[in-house]
């Protein structure tokens, strides 16, 4: 898990970028002309009401959903038609809203299977799994069965699995769902470390807007499939369109 060193100019070249992406399901557009970029070493927040298109965006950036129009580029190379497996090998990892662990395996094997799937040896994958769990501060989870893990540990293992062999980009779809404020705070600290210590570019989707604003350098706001605002935390906090999207125009008058 080596830290990457990159200059400002190489950062732009090595970004994961959606440009003018529209995703249509039949006649319904889940995303319309969305442009969004994730750069190494920082956390990007993605917020928006339920049904705004956040998960569809993650699916599109990770090969689970091909854009209907528009492009997805990784380091300047078009990847919009790549499979999830290809993109994972190219360094784009994600977690899911639901855990999706192999419940018949222990935690170490859950991580090692991912390493083997990425083309690494069994022993190399186990060593990497132990390294990742140690880095996360949960080495004691290695031999625990994945089935029946406490909820927050299950989420941690999902992140550990995504961190196998140091992906360049990590996309987290509601990782704090169901956590207490204290647990969400621990998770926020971990997410910050992923960016600063590993140099990974993170896209964080969260219902918990406070958590997103506490840890993100740049935030995108989606509403009804469109980016209605983006910028640093100050921009988002001051944005009237964001308030309207979240609280409705009526409430402003109250
Ligand atoms: N495979 C699909 N087929 C049809 N509609 C979909 C599909 N996936 C998502 N949608 C619709 O697209 C919209 C955005 O969904 P989603 O990306 O899951 O939103 P979010 O994650 O922001 O809650 C929703 O209206 C959802 O019902
Ligand atoms: Mg979602």
UniProtKB/TrEMBL annotation:
Pfam families: ABC_tran. The keyword Metal-binding does not apply. CDD domains: ABC_Mj1267_LivG_branched. Coiled coil: none annotated. InterPro entries: AAA+_ATPase, ABC_AA/LPS_Transport, ABC_transporter-like_ATP-bd, P-loop_NTPase. Gene3D superfamilies: P-loop containing nucleotide triphosphate hydrolases. Residues 16-249 form the ABC transporter domain. It comes from the Bacteria. The keyword RNA-binding does not apply. Keywords: ATP-binding, Nucleotide-binding, Transport. This is ABC transporter ATP-binding protein. It comes from Aliisedimentitalea scapharcae.
